[in-house]
Amino acid sequence: HATKKTMADHLRKYETLFTLTPQRMRIIVESFKETLELGLQKPEQIVPMIPTFVFGWPTGQEKGDYLAVDLGGTNLRVCLVTLQGEGKFEISQSKYRLTEEQKQEDGQKLFDFCAQCLKTFVDTSLADGSLSLKSGETLPLGFTFSYPCYQSRIDHGILIRWTKGFGALNTEGHDVAEMFRTSLAKYELPVTLTALINDTTGTLIASHYVNPNAKIAVIFGTGCNAAYMEKVSEITKINDLGIPGDEMMGINCEWGAFDSFEHEHLPRTKYDIIVDETSNKPGEQAFEKLISGRYLGEILRLVICELIDEGVLFLGQNTYKLENPYVFDTAFLSLMESDPTDELLMIIGIFSHFFAVETTLAERQFFRALAKLIGRRAARLSSCGIAAIVGRMGYLDNGERCDVGADGSLYNKYPGFADRVHEGLVDIFGEKGRKIVTHRAEDGSGVGSAIIAAMTKTRK
Ligand code: ADP
Q1: Superfamily of domain 55-210+443-453 in the CATH hierarchy
Q2: Catalytic residue flag (residue 338)
Q3: How far is C-alpha 400 from the geometric centre of its chain's CA atoms?
Q4: Residue 6 and residue 174: Cα distance in Å, rounded?
Q5: pTM of the model
Q6: Is residue 2 pLDDT above 70, yes or no?
Q7: ipTM
Q8: CB of 293 shorter than 6 A to ligand 1
């Protein structure tokens, strides 16, 4: 007859499952580096290392008015950016919520909605005087479209696949810039779509505009991705384009796809496997599914459900509210970790208010510890990705520092996330890992998009 396990006993099992040792991290970094290199050499690799056709760093002297539309995940955002030079800018913006139907129905309808929102924004800006246009004048528009696209020019891009829960029809395999132009024309907007960019690339350029030490950008939001600047001669898969080898080009890594389908480099728990298999894209975005905001709450919920099934948690209570996929938002992990009270009153509130269940103190301590394990693993896996780029580019050679522009709610709002990334980098590189520091990035999908639209103008 087994004695009843305490919550602390249960926690030990999950500690083992979710903990990454420095040694394991270094092995992941090595395979990550090989994957990055493969993506630069050959087309259609799992991590596609997409050439962005953004050439070199901005000077900081880019100027003028630009519009940006950002289709990135949870919201649609429309911005008016005024670049003032000397690394300075002003921005005004509006946000529009996307419905689940808009994400899944016809793609052209989705772009029509984007154009409609832009029209509302432009009309309002013209009416209140924040924007003025001479007759016949059009404004350059940067379209921040944060899904993997193949580009052969800056103002064109074929959607490879939707990520982050999107699935709009008739869009994968199509030129999304052209689709958006069709919608812009339908609403007779006074704009010229000059650049199609990814938020990660935008973040890279915007970070560098204000801080020339920034060499890498990482997004930790609904999804997870990174960008950096690569020497064209190293991007051997585009050798035939005749671009001088010593130029630099932004690379949108799309690293969320690392280890997709193969599943041989990353340590996945059975909860990760359930998240993957029940997702709308099984097998894909394997790295992202362990890290990004869309999934962390769900991983925790699956552990809780397992313990409900085993009769460990909430015996005799109705737990149906916890049994729906994705009801446990990653923001709850942040709240649980930052609960300042001994009684963990915040956690009482989350479970009673949102899920109608009562918790004991031991259970609440367990939930908080579990959130920490899942959040910490996400941060440390991110360190592995950053370390792979840093190692590849030799950014720590010669005692240099390397700043990383980071953005997204997970990075900005999850308590201790950045510290855990930094800790992970020290575990990988030792003391010199301290030279890699993440910073809250400037708004890449707005400001970065505007800067790239400006850089594009001067290059032509
Ligand atoms: P997006 O990537 O969609 O442009 P965000 O950067 O805001 O937008 O990321 C949204 C994701 O961040 C969602 O998955 C959400 O669960 C998560 N999130 C929102 N608030 C928090 C928070 N306070 N702590 C941790 N994660 C959060």
Answers
A1: ATPase, nucleotide binding domain (3.30.420.40)
A2: no
A3: 26
A4: 55
A5: 0.93
A6: no
A7: 0.99
A8: yes
